[in-house]
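Sanity check

After download, print the first record. It should look like this:
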Amino acid sequence: MLRLNPLRLAFTATLFAGSLSAQAQTSAPLYPKLSKTLDSLAAVDQRPMQQMMQGPQPDSVMKRLVAEQPLNFARHQPILEAIVKKYGYPGFRQVGEKSSNNFWLLVQHADAYPLFQRQVLKLMLVEVQRKNASPRNYAYLTDRIAENSGQLQEYGTQVKYEGPGIGKAAPRSLRDPKNVNKRRAAIGMETLEDYLKTSDALHEQMNVAKPKNF
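Expected structure tokens:
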């Protein structure tokens, strides 16, 4: 059975990041059509991971699902670039909290386009400061970019699995580990230890066969 790292794939984003945002949506979004577009793109983005999360799959199925993801990402990229060019960063007020989180999710998976990710991160910081985007999501994208560019993570969100069996989650890299929980707390994240426990539970769900119901 393929041993996968769910935190390098799509499911992580919706579970950990989108649930805690800087402000609740209290009014209708400025661009409802854009909201629908982002939600539709995110649904396609998440579909392979949702199938993986149903439990262990034959290797042939897992390989197909894994291969499907970058194809989806590539198809979405020109749409995302056009959105940024026209609207800037689509924050809570522009598209609503859910759709704004979905936009971030799609950018999080644009690893093949690092300059675009950096562009969005810069725009996102301004919106976080305006409480128009999630600081938690900002942390995930910060770590994603750092990891992909060979730098140390700030928050430890990108993990690897080490040890016997399916392994246990550990940050792929981490700057100043002693103070990581202070940095995480400052943006409303749980401790790194609790985050890794949740990561382990997800990894086990994907890789360990479930008992049959009798």
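If your output differs, re-run the checksum step. Summary of this record's structure: The CA atoms of residues 74 and 112 lie 8 Å apart.
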